[in-house]
Amino acid sequence: MTEVVHTPRVFSGIQPSGGLTLGNYLGALKRFVEMQNSGIETLYCMVDLHAITVWQNPDDLRHATRELAAGFIASGLDPQKSILFNQSQVSAHAELAWVFNCVARMGWLNRMTQFKDKAGKNRENASVGLFSYPNLMASDILIYKATQVPVGDDQKQHLELTRDIAAKFNNDFGVDHFPITEPKIEGAATRVMSLRDGAKKMSKSDPSDASRINMTDDAETIAKKIRKAKTDPDGLPSEIEGLTDRAEAKNLVNIYAALADMSVEQVLAECGGKQFSEFKPMLSDLAVAKLSPISGEMARLMEDTSEIDRILGDGARKANAIAQPILEETYDIVGLIRSK
Ligand code: AQP
To answer: Which of ligand 1's atoms lies nearest the C-alpha of 154?
Structure first.
């Protein structure tokens, strides 16, 4: 088998299943911008087909998709530098996902912890789409032969599955067609936790709004949520070991470090010994300083949704131009006849 050197290409996506959270921003979006600015080819997607694995009100979904696009652009993604689009406008994602439904094994999907978490006790009532979600995610990535995927830590298992699918496809058909994609899980806040429970991930679909900071929250709301964030009675340690078994304290320090572009060690060297009554206002001020320019720009962009739709349409055309030949090549490898 000839070994192919795959051109470096970055793909990642976020679901428009609610508003963007600080977790999405620090774990994913901030890294998307860094990768875009490193000069590598980047494609970023509003994964609306993933969002509907759980029922969405259609008007809310349309609004959330446009607002997510506004969040991408306001955070620094430039439609001239990155391809920005919504998933459902590039049908090759869904088509390749079907092929992967036939490659991935039931046993692999049965091990996915996100499905278990999201389906909860009522597994029999979960949608089939929620179960096969990781196959669509593998398709999102491999339809562009993406070599790198910036994500938060919660997506690690799904990316391992993507690698398994690529390897099985290549092996089953004796080709070196799909790259074995590298996850990029980096930075001080790869898993931002809920402000109310340090054992739970901050999530846009958490029923408690107090558990998360939304990118659209105003300064007063951000300050209030941080003031009320759960902590323990001790102050900040000066060494990282002092955060062991202190999930909530660790979370606030990680958030500070990621927002300030500092390491956790640097934050503790500066703030060690402070009580949370002193550290929380510092964190609020920093969060407001970093997030309010983004939320302001999001609001401005949302005043003209036709411009957002134009950007998404333009991005979808560019994405389609990359995806379609890869889909055709894949169908040919599988043995599906394509009439010219
Ligand atoms: N709390 C988090 N900390 C760090 N990164 C996070 N991400 C999500 N939450 C955190 C990263 O954001 C990207 C987009 O995630 P997604 O929208 O596709 O779905 P998700 O991971 O399931 O995020 P949510 O907010 O929890 O959405 P819902 O509530 O709809 O399920 C991914 O890179 C993810 O790692």
So the answer is: 35
Q: Which residues lie with the beta carbon below 6 Å from any ligand 1 atom?
A: 14-15, 17-18, 21, 23-24, 27-28, 151-152, 154-155, 190-192, 201-205
Q: Which helix (H) or strand (E) holds 174?
A: none
* Residue pair 46/69 in contact by the 8 Å Cβ criterion: yes
CB crowding 240-260: b at 16 or more within 10 Å, else e: eeebeebbbbbbbbbbbbbbb
pLDDT digits (tens, 9 = 90+) for 232-245: 999 999 999 999 99
**Does the active-site annotation cover 230?**
no
Supply the pLDDT for residue 223.
96
Residue 2 has pLDDT above 80, yes or no: no
Amino acid letter at 55?
A: W
Closest residue by Cα to atom 33, ligand 1, is 151
- Give the separation between CA 73 and CA 254, rounded to whole angstroms: 25
Q: Ligand 1 centroid to 4 CA: how many Å?
A: 32
Q: Is the pLDDT of residue 340 over 90?
A: no
Adjacent-strand bridge partners of 17:
none
Give 39 Cα–ligand 1 centroid separation in angstroms.
25
Query: From atom 23 of ligand 1, which residue's Cα is the shortest distance away?
Result: 203
CB hemisphere CA count around 55 (13 angstroms): 3
Nearest to 97 by CA among 327, 318, 339: 327
Give yes or no for residue 3 having a pLDDT over 80.
no
pLDDT at 310 over 70: yes
Q: Give me the residues paired with residue 183 across strands.
A: 149
Out of 30, 145, 184, 204, pick the active-site residue: 204
Q: From the candidates 184, 201, 225, 280, which is the catalytic residue?
A: 201
- Among 267, 191, 187, 283, CA closest to 231: 283
φ, ψ at 184 (rounded to 5°)? -115, 95
